[in-house]
Amino acid sequence: MTGAVVIRRVEAGDVPAVVTLIDAVLGEFGVAFGEGTDTDLPLFGLPASYDDHGGAFWVATRDGDVVGTIGLFPFHDAETFELRKMYLSPGGRRQGLGKALLDVALDFARARGARRVTLDTIEEMLGAIAFYEKHGFVRDDRYRVGSRCTRGYVRAL
Asked: Residues near 134 by Cβ (< 8 Å), separated by ≥ 6?
């Protein structure tokens, strides 16, 4: 992968690549796509499954390949968004791509008047946990939603 990274809103044509990337990353941690959460299957309906509910989903591409994903979905109140599906391909990690995706999502949340962003993850995703904590997320298991997830986090905006 040599080209510049482009971050853009997801298109329906991106869905197979998005699902393939997320399935592969989950597999790195022994997690099966579609099990233990209700947030995997809506990916097949992108972009409408997020856009129609007031959320958004982005992909990062390099040389036409999807190398990263991130989504925001309204949580239980108008001031909270849930960060979902932040995944990077192995070749997209440790290059600032995660921060760039996170910045896009946080800007979207702020522009809609959100006061906080939440997320949940699994203990085994040590790199992701370190990333989230480095970028202002604080552990708060009240925001653990998926049954496969073992940690919840929140970040004030």
From this structure: none
Residue the block writes with tokens 């073992």: 150
**65-74 β-sheet, strand order:** 5-9, 56-62, 65-74, 80-88, 116-121, 151-156, 138-139
> Tokens representing 8?
């853009």
Measured between alpha carbons, how far is 152 from 35 in angstroms, rounded to an integer? 18
Asked whether 93 and 127 are in contact (CB, 8 A), the reply is yes
Mean pLDDT, to the nearest integer, of 21-29?
95
Per-residue model confidence as pLDDT tens digits over 101-150: 999 999 999 999 999 999 999 999 999 999 999 999 999 999 998 888 99
Structure tokens given for 146: 């998926």
Cα 9 to Cα 57: distance, rounded to the nearest angstrom: 6
Close Cβ partners of 39 (under 8 Å, ≥ 6 residues apart): 73, 84, 85, 146
Percent of the chain with pLDDT over 90: 85
Q: For the residues of 25-73, what is the DSSP string, one character each? A: HHHHTT--TTSS-SSSGGGGGTTHHHHTTT-EEEEEEETTEEEEEEEEE
